[in-house]
Amino acid sequence: MTKMTTTPELLLENQLCFTIYACSREITKLYQPYLDSIGVTYSQYLVMLVLWERRQCTVKEIGEALFLDSGTLTPLLKRLQAAGLILRERSLQDERKVLISLTEQGWALQKDALCIPSKMMEGTAMTGDEFVDLLAQFKNLLGRVHDTNLLSKK
Amino acid sequence: MTKMTTTPELLLENQLCFTIYACSREITKLYQPYLDSIGVTYSQYLVMLVLWERRQCTVKEIGEALFLDSGTLTPLLKRLQAAGLILRERSLQDERKVLISLTEQGWALQKDALCIPSKMMEGTAMTGDEFVDLLAQFKNLLGRVHDTNLLSKK
DNA sequence: TTATATTATATTGTGTACAATACATTATCA
DNA sequence: TGATAATGTATTGTACACAATATAATATAA
Question: Which phi and psi angles does A4 have, rounded to 5°?
């Protein structure tokens, strides 16, 4: 028996944070081949999901939906614009806002993306019930942590 | 009722991937004030957890423990070295390997880190049972996804 | 024992993430 | 109305994250 050099609380295998962090990156890798085939990154794909759903958004709205700030979104959106998938234009009503909308090419990409979710289900080797259950638990945790973060901002 | 512009599979709220991704980033934010106070980043903290546990590691071993590659670890380890927390030295037995170990200052930091896990438990507002249960489920998911990724590498 | 393959790390380039700051625009109040 | 605050986006700087490639050292095989 080797002498312990740390405590149970600090063991990597007991860290929920690490498990989630590693999970997130491994899932991104799972998407990689499919995202490569449609030519967007994982974060860009999430932005496209938001736009397919809402048609038009401000940068702020996209940020609220994805929990991302403008320092991340601005360059990302410029790359999507350069790829011809979205339009960026200042609102005429309020010139502080930048309106993001889809080009025809951006809408066309939706068809290519349709098969991705089912491929991912396969990759996680989960049943539909497991998926629904896990999603609910994650959302619950996300809600709690997000609330704590909001409180500590004030 | 507005006309739907996307399908249920592509709705952001149905994406397990996004929920986990957002969760991971929000949890990192939860750690931020405590990590700031001990002067390391989140990824650097994870490397320190590995080293407090194993005393000495090669870069490869740290990468396997954290699912990170050398492109991420090399600069990160150099910053930890510059901060005086670790040592980096080539193995005499096999000069391809770089051995990472803790300085006295690196060990001293462990005391300051001891309080962090309990603070995080508070931030997630979970009971001990919920925590154990959730951790088991995420580990299960991580294992499955990691296996799928390993298979597709071959 | 050389040629070949494998292993371990480092480097480079692209793309996030986010804090901090700057800046222009709009809203509000004295 | 003029000053002040709040809002929305962009910019800058630091630190990952990873694919692809390079390089050096070790192991293996003919």
Answer: -70, 140
